[in-house]
Amino acid sequence: MRTVFLCHARQDSHIAQGIAEFLVRGADVRFFIEDGRIDSPAELIGKISEGQTADVILILLSPNSTPPKWVREEWQPAIFDEPDQAGIPVGILLAEACNFPALLRRKNFFDISDGTLKPLRDLRRWLLGIGRERTAPTAVPILEPESAELDELAETLADAPGSAQASLNDAVAFVRAYWRDFDSVHWLHCASRPFVSIAGELGAALGIYPRGELEDNLDQLREHCQTNRPLIIFDGITPSLLQQLAPGGRSSCIAIPPEHLRKSVGPTKLHRAAAVCAQAGFRWSLVEQIAGKPGTLDDQQFIQLDRLGRVRLRKPSIPEEPLVMPHARAVWNRFRGWVNDEQGCLADLPDLEVAVDRCLARASLAEAWTLACELSRTAYLLTRKHNRFAEAFHWMNQISQVAMRKGDKAMLEESAREARWILENWNRPPYIAAADTRAEEQMTLF
After folding, report:
1. Are 344 and 286 in contact (CB under 8 A)?
2. In DSSP terms, which residues pair with 93 in a beta bridge?
3. Angstrom distance (rounded) from CA 133 to CA 129
4. Which residues contact 292 (CB under 8 A, 6 or more apart)?
5. Strand pairing report for 163-165 and 252-256
6. Signed CA dihedral, 114, 117, 122, 127: sign only
7. Would the CATH topology of 2-129 be identical to that of 151-256?
8. Cα separation of 125 and 326, whole Å?
9. Residue ranges per domain, the chain?
10. pTM reported for the whole predicted model
11. Across the strands, what pairs with 254?
12. N or C: which end of the chain has fewer CB within 10 A?
């Protein structure tokens, strides 16, 4: 937490208090209000020097705080030289027109005299950016948003921690306009994904890899967001699920509702192949493999999600049954060599998840059951290696239940062995309990 020393006149205490309250809501800062108060303009320069005990110095200028005569030999060392040598950033805030050296306008100057929020938001972005090299987030759908009214989202999400529902267009527009108001921005593609997988993706996005059970992991995410200020976009999730998954604290969250499936998918086999892929996004190369032919993107039908070539349908379509198994085979071809591209396969988990679910639903077919076992095993190994144990347990627990019904003793023993390893790490009895599926049963996306 940064400490901020705000130099101001006693008569401007209400302005200083308002500035502090606004910034504390949207940035991890602590203000020294009373310590920075002066009773006469003659005290300003000396008070500024006292501020070097803090991480940042702010100077609130008004007729109540500015001396009638500025002596350069006094103000330049206090405002420029000494803080620069100590590595202490200094910001100048103009509350009301007054006399001050023009050189101060070059020193992180913010004119708040018009009473609008923009200069205060600029001030907050400056505070958040101190000592950090900031770049625009890249994991945002690559589309040019139409005009959007963002004032309400800004007040709800940027000016203070909060949650809101928004369209894809407005969410993209908001991120582009306000990403500097957050410590970090994370866009999670959630449509038709297991709850435990979304929680794992959130932890990985925040740089947290909790090794415990789902609820314990969610507690760690919440604890992380007590002191950090991320913006998290849950793309393709219902508001009720957002309430269960949003980490709270100082975070802000956007829920983009899932699109409804439609029957018509388009005129070509490429469109139909895309419809069978994961709603959360897929690689175009997977579509070409399923269709058995190369093709190009149609911007009217697809949204590009990232620079890796992952896309998704603008309007998700109902997958056609004849393409379900070709999709599963293509996914297995993608994941059989996951050790050579772990990060890429982690990004492609949505397709593996839907392939497993579909194969398990068709487990009476020999090929579907074989693929379900191979893909579940791969999902387990990949997520376990990245310390996403709740997800790893989900894959083994799920396949074990079907193996039990099918009487596949070999798969049941394998899944029990792997699940037991995780349960022992959790200090839980070494058994596979059907009750452990309650989270997935209660937290499905549709």
Report:
1. no
2. 60, 110
3. 7
4. 269
5. parallel
6. positive
7. yes
8. 49
9. 2-129, 151-256
10. 0.89
11. 164, 233
12. C
List the one residue out of 213, 216, 215, 217 whose CA is nearest residue 202.
217
Residues 25, 161: Cα–Cα separation, whole Å: 7
> What's the topology of domain 2-129?
Rossmann fold (3.40.50)
Beta-bridged to residue 231, according to DSSP, are 185, 252
**Yes or no: domain 151-256 corresponds to CATH 1.10.390.10:** no
The one-letter code for the residue type at 223 is E
CA distance from start to end of the chain: 40
Residues contacting residue 207 through CB under 8 Å, at least 6 positions apart: none
Q: Per-residue confidence of the chain (446 residues) as pLDDT tens digits?
A: 899 999 999 999 999 999 999 999 999 899 999 999 999 999 999 999 999 999 999 999 999 999 989 999 999 999 999 999 999 999 999 999 999 999 999 999 999 999 999 999 999 999 999 988 888 898 899 988 888 899 999 999 999 999 999 999 999 999 999 999 999 999 999 999 999 999 999 999 999 988 889 999 999 999 999 999 999 999 999 877 888 899 999 999 999 999 888 886 677 889 899 999 999 999 999 999 999 999 887 778 889 998 878 999 988 989 999 999 999 999 999 999 999 999 999 999 999 999 999 999 999 999 999 999 999 999 999 999 999 999 999 999 999 999 999 999 999 999 999 999 999 889 887 654 443 443 343 333 32
Q: How far apart are CA 181 and CA 178, in angstroms?
A: 6
- 249: alpha, beta or left? (left if phi > 0; alpha if psi -120 to 50): left
Instruction: Say which residue the tokens 């995410």 belong to.
Output: 221
